[in-house]
Amino acid sequence: MKRKGYGRDPGLTLRMVFTSALLGLLYVTFAVILFSVLKVSLAPLIVIVAGLAFVQYYTSDKLALRAAGAKIVSREQLPQVYDIVERLAAMAELPMPRVALVDTDVPNAFATGRDPKHAVVAVTTGLLRRLDPQEIEGVLAHELTHVKNRDVRTMTLASFFAMLAALITRFAFYGSLFGGGNRNNNNGPPIWLILLIASYVTYAISFILIRTISRYREYAADRGSAIITGAPEYLMSALQKISSQMALIPQRDLREVQGMNAFFIIPTSVKQTTAEWFMDHPPLEKRLAALSEIAREMGRPV
Amino acid sequence: MALFGRRKRAASVARDRLFALSTAQVTLDTELGLKTAGVAAVIFKPMSSGDFVRAESDMQQLLEATSADTGTKIEQKTDSFGFQWFILRDPDIEDLVTGASTVASELSDAGFGPQLLAAAFKFDGGKDPVYFVYGFKTGSFWPFVPTGDGQSRDNAEELELKSKLEHELPIEPDLTKWLALYNAPI
Questions:
Q1: Whole-angstrom Cα distance, residue B80 to residue B78?
Q2: In angstroms, what separates the C-alpha of A60 from chain B's closest C-alpha?
Q3: Considering A137, A143, A218, A233, which one is annotated as catalytic?
Q4: Least CA distance to B85: which residue of chain A?
Q5: Are B45 and A256 inside 8 Å of each other by CB?
Q6: B179, A246: Cβ pair inside 8 Å?
Q7: How confident is the model at residue A96 (pLDDT cuts 50, 70, 90)?
Q8: Is there a contact between A82 and A25 (Cβ–Cβ < 8 Å)?
Q9: What are phi and psi of B156, to 5 degrees?
Q10: Measured between alpha carbons, how far is residue A224 from residues A277, A284, A301 in Å?
Q11: Interface mutation vs chain A, best among B44, B176, B177, most A CBs within 10 Å
Q12: Between A92 and A281, whose confidence is greater?
């Protein structure tokens, strides 16, 4: 019953499939151009690409945690979060994920890990400080839906070729500086130019498509949270609290922060990464509208 | 050496911005009903080195000399974080701003600018006391409205103050820098 509950928005599913198909088509075209221009045999190309993908896939969670300054915490350190996550994981039929804490006043949360068995749910101290328990539950249910929907895998896969294209753009540019001169023997445009344009176009288009997919996954996670908790109004008030200007004002004391000057670099870098997390999210009003629509469907209008 | 020269200029610009508070007092009074509580403080981290102790006592002497004219009362307190509060009491906001500026410039001219944390000016007239905190490093003000019970502050009121005063006061645009000063000894 619950398992089916997550994808009960056929319009959203259709848009997601369509965007993913566009992205796939784009990547295949890109691969074909790479293949025909470089004239390398297929095998080494596949090995290199697969190797890169493998490394990215297996290190993405550690990278995400490190970039955010998140530390895995034990049940004793954060019992209130463990209790909520345990209950929600049981309801969503997921194994208990690890829990991580980011020491920053900016209220936020994220999930990472390549599959549910390796999932980590991270919350910031600011989130715990500012939200009520039911609101925290709504946010954690949203993150667990990301785990359930295997969004980390989807987004890693979706952004892999975009990263590859960005990489090639850079190499092709250097190629134009160092190797451009001795390739004038053929009549067509130089290889580096074709590579540069193809990679650039791939990167630009995939960037837009990836952000679109990311927004769809957010709507899906909001929907999942509403269904798991049965109370979308708490996620709604949590979202309003998190994105209000007030959430930016620190609760911390100036003298306390000044005293631990050595750690000051970490909060600012966290701020930047969390801002990026927000960038791929749909606008607040649209998320709230979608949630109140779900609330109506569930027979508890807000 | 150029590095030090630049730093000094930046510090004096920051001090000039401090005086914006005395111009903003009309708006504070007529539009927001906030009046100075007659007290302000410069907060700094003391050092045990002889140079610093000398600079501090020079500064204290200068302040005592000038306050004889203005009638400003001065006092020093140490808080639980180990920060020194150089407290000025005067019903006139302009005297408070001038006094705070003197304390800051004396310390930074002696090379102890990095020890300066902030200046705080207290205002009454609202539900809770309002502090305007001035960061010497950023050269900007931010409002701080503690609500009395422990470590809580009235963010709504603070944002309201920002929107009403940002044309007159250099208000810190980065809200994440609006750090609190709970249990201030003023």
A1: 7
A2: 28
A3: A143
A4: A255
A5: no
A6: no
A7: very high
A8: no
A9: -65, -45
A10: 19, 17, 17
A11: B176
A12: A92
Cβ atoms within 10 Å, residue B14:
21
CA of B69, closest CA in chain A: separation in Å? 33
Q: Residue A149 is which amino acid?
A: N
Closest CA to B64 of B76, B53, B72, B56: B72
Nearest to A226 by CA among A142, A123, A136, A149: A142
Q: Measured between alpha carbons, how far is residue A277 from residues A59, A140, B90, B119 in Å? A: 18, 15, 48, 35
Distance from first CA to last CA of chain A, Å, rounded? 24
Q: How far apart are CA A121 and CA B169, in angstroms?
A: 42
| Nearest by CB: B180 against A106, A254, A271 | A254
> Own/partner pairs for A195-201, CB < 8 Å, 24+ apart?
A195/A34, A195/A37, A195/A38, A195/A168, A195/A171, A196/A169, A196/A172, A198/A30, A198/A33, A198/A34, A198/A37, A198/A165, A199/A30, A199/A165, A199/A166, A199/A168, A199/A169, A199/A172, A200/A165, A200/A169
- Give the domain ranges of chain A: 2-297
Mean pLDDT by 10 residues, chain B (186 residues): 48 72 92 94 92 93 89 93 94 94 93 92 94 92 89 87 90 90 93
Beginning with the edge strand found earlier in the chain, give each strand of the sheet holding A98-102 in spatial order: A70-73, A98-102, A120-124, A109-112
The residue with tokens 């309003």 is: A240
Contact state of A253 with B181 under an 8 Å Cβ cutoff = yes
User: Could you report the predicted ipTM of this complex, rounded to two decimals?
Assistant: 0.83
Strands (E), B24-72: 35-44
Chain B: closest CA distance from residue A246 (Å): 6
Phi, psi torsion values for B84, nearest 5 degrees: -90, 130
CB count, 10 Å around CB of A83?
13
For A100, phi and psi rounded to 5 degrees?
Answer: -125, 155
